[in-house]
Write a structure and sequence with these properties.
This protein is an alpha/beta fold. The chain has helices at about 15-30, 95-105, 130-140, 160, 190; strands at about 5-10, 35, 85-90, 105-110, 140-145, 170, 185. It has one domain: 3-Layer(aba) Sandwich (Aspartate Aminotransferase, domain 2), CATH 3.40.640.10. Strands 1-7-6-5-4-2-3 form a seven-stranded mixed β-sheet, with helices on both faces. Helix 2 (about 95-105) runs parallel beside helix 3.
Length: about 210
């Protein structure tokens, strides 16, 4: 059903799936920076619980329109946790290309909610996801779709099927198991192979992961 799901790894929550997706992307690319789009929610862990509900400035601009630095949503994050996260505006392919062009040797992946449900169901502008996809191909960066909300809801194959854009890695949750704790990281076989139990260089662990198999 899922266009990007050549390989599947199961976990328990969306936050766990995103954490694993980051490790896979970094382990595969040997780069460290992850780009996220402002307003998207990808879990509660230190690296991604940033720029989720940023406040507008006096001139009605969002923080990502001024700087790519993440805005923490909480205190208590580990020192240095945000050094490898960059934030760009949603629906702005130009901002994405600008950052990548200037930092291409450092960027492992872009993570995005294909439809920005966290901020009130903001749809991608026509051609936006396709343009983002093409830019990731151009600069050799992995594209991660967070389909925890959109998966199986917008279409049987998620937003990637609806918009005909196949990411390298996707994360799913919620709708997979009708409310039971289950999530999944899926992606291209060659990328996911870095988690192979005996030959891979990226661990994929979870105390309760096995109870889904």
């Amino acid at each position: 059903m899922i266009p990007s799901a050549e390989s599947v790894k199961l976990s328990n929550t969306g936050s766990e799936a995103v954490m694993h997706a980051f490790q896979i992307a970094r382990g595969y690319s040997h780069r460290n920076v992850i780009i996220k789009t402002e307003g998207c929610y990808h879990g509660w862990q230190d690296e991604v619980h940033v720029s989720v509900h940023p406040k507008l400035s006096e001139d009605q601009r969002t923080p990502s329109e001024v700087s790519t630095s993440p805005v923490p949503e909480s205190e208590g994050y580990a020192a240095g946790a945000l050094e490898r996260i960059a934030v760009i505006p949603y629906n702005d392919a130009g901002a994405f290309e600008k950052y990548v062009r200037e930092n291409r040797d450092q960027v492992a992946a872009l993570i995005i909610e294909p439809v920005l449900f966290n901020s009130g169901c903001i749809l991608p502008e026509p051609g936006y996801l396709q343009e983002i996809y093409e830019l990731t191909r151009k600069y050799g960066i992995l594209l991660i779709f967070d389909e925890v909300i959109t998966g199986f809801l917008l279409a049987p194959g998620g937003a990637q099927q609806l918009y005909n854009v196949t990411p390298d890695i996707s994360v799913f949750g919620k709708a997979i198991a009708n409310g039971f704790p289950l999530s999944a990281v899926v992606g291209r076989e060659d990328i996911m192979r870095v988690t192979a139990p005996k030959t891979g260089r990226v661990g994929f662990f979870g105390t309760f992961n096995a109870n889904k198999q």
